[in-house]
Amino acid sequence: AVFRAPSARAWFDFFKTYFGPMITVLNALDDDGRTRFADDIVAVLESVNRADDGTLLAEAEYLEVIAVKE
Fold first, then answer.
1. Which of 18, 38, 54, 59 has the greatest count of CB atoms below 10 A from its CB?
2. What residues contact 69, with CB distance under 8 A and at least 6 apart?
3. Is the dihedral of CA 23, 9, 61, 40 positive or negative?
4. How far lies 50's CA from each of 5, 16, 44, 54, 70, in Å?
5. What is the mean pLDDT of residues 47-69?
6. Is residue 50 a contact partner of residue 57, using CB atoms and an 8 Å limit?
7. pLDDT one-digit tens code per residue, 9-37
8. SS3 for the chain, per residue?
9. What confidence category does residue 8 fall into, taking pLDDT thresholds of 50, 70 and 90?
């Protein structure tokens, strides 16, 4: 999967608003923890960013598991 966004911070802002697991984590943290978490996520995104124009272009791997109940 390829993540594209206007910036790493814009990617985080989108996910903190619309991605349930991230919303849950942020709700469990105090203000200082939310700030540190956001800064850490943005730093990771910036470390893997392949764009050189200030935008975000980051590749991500994921595992898809399909379970079949018999």
1. 38
2. none
3. negative
4. 12, 22, 12, 10, 44
5. 95
6. yes
7. 999 999 999 999 999 999 999 999 999 99
8. CEEEECCHHHHHHHHHHHCHHHHHHHHHCCHHHHHHHHHHHHHHHHHHCCCCCCCEEEECCCCCCCCCCC
9. very high
The pTM of this model reads 0.83
Q: Residue for token digits 């598991």?
A: 65
Location of structure tokens 């911070």: 9
* Count, residues in the chain: 70
Find, among 41, 47, 48, the residue nearest to 10 by Cα.
Answer: 41
